[in-house]
Amino acid sequence: MSTAFDHLQTFLLIIFFVYFCFSIFFKFVEMKANTLMNELIIALVSGIAIVLCMTFPITFSTGYSLNFLQIPLIIGALYGGRRVTVFLTVILVTYRLFLNSPDTDTTLLIYCLLLVSLWYIIPLFNKAVTMRMKVFLALLASFFGLFSRITKFVLLMPENITMDYFIIYIASFIIQPIGILFFVVFNENSRRNAILSKVIRKFEKLKTVSELAASISHEVRNPLTVTRGFIQLLRDPNLTEEEKKLYINFSMEALDKAEATITDYLTFAKPSLDHVERLDLKKELDYIANIINPFAEINNVMIECQNDMNIYITGGKQQFHQCLINLIKNGIESMPDGGKMHIHLQKINEKAVITVTDTGMGMTDEQMEQLGTPYYTTKVKGTGLGTMVMYNSVKAMQGEIKVESEVGRGTRFSLFFPVTEH
Hints:
It catalyses: ATP + protein L-histidine = ADP + protein N-phospho-L-histidine. The chain is α+β, with helices and mostly antiparallel strands.
């Protein structure tokens, strides 16, 4: 009893090995390798399983032995194709000769019959679209395998047919189809999940491109339409010099807006750092505070800056300025009735941490999850490009952003950058 249990454990380990290898194959390898490489991997996995099944059969006290080598043989044939089927049959017969097993001639006849049946089932299996059809063909192949074994003993060795052998083959009729059914269902699910993941990623990219295209076309078309209108007005010979200057200024402002939108888009599309240098964060934050302070005063926002430490990071100065200015500007605009903004610089665990806290409207959890995604903004007239640029610039500088917010109480952005020694 203990020996039979040990053999059963070995059989289950072999089945787990085959299933695990096929699952890894369908999930990570099949889509990336060519047809020949896929066939080689399937032949290798199935061949090893066949050898293991023949090396460690389940032996009963009556002297009869049972192995389930047809399970990896049929699975490898259905998913590998005709060439793999021939290769696995050759491995099976060759290894049987190596083991000096009796009745090699009859065994060769059995698997030649099975090879012929698989030769016609494999194309149908590959063309099958539904899971039900694939399961039916796999069970049909399993039936042909069991039928070929029964044919061997009924026609060639009828004297060996006893009640014990009858019980063993009843067990084969139950276990082998269930094993093949298990493999086909789980392998097809793994295969379809891998295909579905690839399709979803493709559609996500297309969706991103379409949203960006809609955003860019809308934001660029408006200033160009304004510019065209003022240029048409300049054709009027009765315009005064003051009116001409006014129209030209309006046109230039509209073109500057279009240029800024395109620049933001290009920065998002290629968040690389053209000029990398060592940045003194104290000095850079003072510079940014001086730039943004007039805008804050107009909006009745008081900025408190706490940056007494000299901390250095590596990055692009222009991208860093653009990132912080966009972040602070968004915070100011979130306080339409005025408020306070606190900018704090500190060093935590070899990371430079810049915290920007406002007392604005705050955001919900759903809004925070959408931050940095294309065409998403919480502002009425925003495009979402500024936030995308900020996230991509920080990422290009090997940093990260964490956001904490509460509706009605404000938002805190924490920017983490690797520290560079002075």
